[in-house]
Protein 1
Amino acid sequence: MGYAQRHNQQLIQAYPSIGFTVSQIEGDELKGFKKWGVTTGVGAMVNLSPSEMFKMSVEADFTQRGTFNNSGTPYSLYDFTLNYVDIPLMFHFQEPVGGVEFGLGVDYGRLVQQPHGLLKYNPLALMPDTSNLSFLKNDFAIVANLRFTIWNGLKFDLRYHRSILPVKHQWQFTQYVNAQETNTWYNDCYNQSVSVRLLYVIGDDGHKPKAGYYRHHHSKKRRR
């Protein structure tokens, strides 16, 4: 009875979150996660099973993504910031031994500000088309995360985000050798980011899922 009451009280749990992101734009002829940003938001978690091993969550987050490079290759300076409002819907499995939680789901991101920053390049090496640097308003992505409890309701969350549809279509790049154009190509661009966050789940005492509780409880009732 006591467990059932506690379970009902915690069917839906709310949480705020705050952290940072590191990201890149795949398709801009750069490699490496070098753009730092912030992420913050609120979420709600719903238990899907009596054991509390299976859960579903939905969030509303503000997240900064983008790209950065100042190495001179191929850009002398490239610093774009993309601000998104994200709504991730995820399903979670919390293993009962260590209490580590694994999540997988989808995310809808709405671009609330077009890229702001700087783009400087060497026109004698690689020249991107700068006539239109706008990105698509919608970002559809897959998200995966790993989460564990630090203390009671305070949790550490590591999340990976990757666009499944382009956020910019057919960005043109032209390569030059000895001031002569040698090659032109077009890339679709995708967001990729990793976020590290702290969450505080309201009303969570840090307990682990009760795997096998109901199976054991009902088997005892049948024997009676």
Protein 2
Amino acid sequence: MNIKPLADRVVIKMLEAEETTKGGIILASASKEKPQVAEIVAVGPGGVVDGKDVKMEVKIGDKVLISKYSGTEVKLDGEEYTIVRQSDILAIVE
């Protein structure tokens, strides 16, 4: 089953959080921060949103930084995805 986002929405899959700190300390799963880097899985068509023309700036496969607690989490076929508006994406990571 595929997810096809509408309007200016983007489907992302969060990348795994770091397991160890730079100093080599292994983190327990409860102490890990929610990751903010994600990979784009699907992109909506854009168009007119709230009376403004929205051009989609991201594409499938881009790695992006998102706002910390943005989006709606969904589970599909055992995989967890987050659906966010393009405006919740802060930057593309190159």
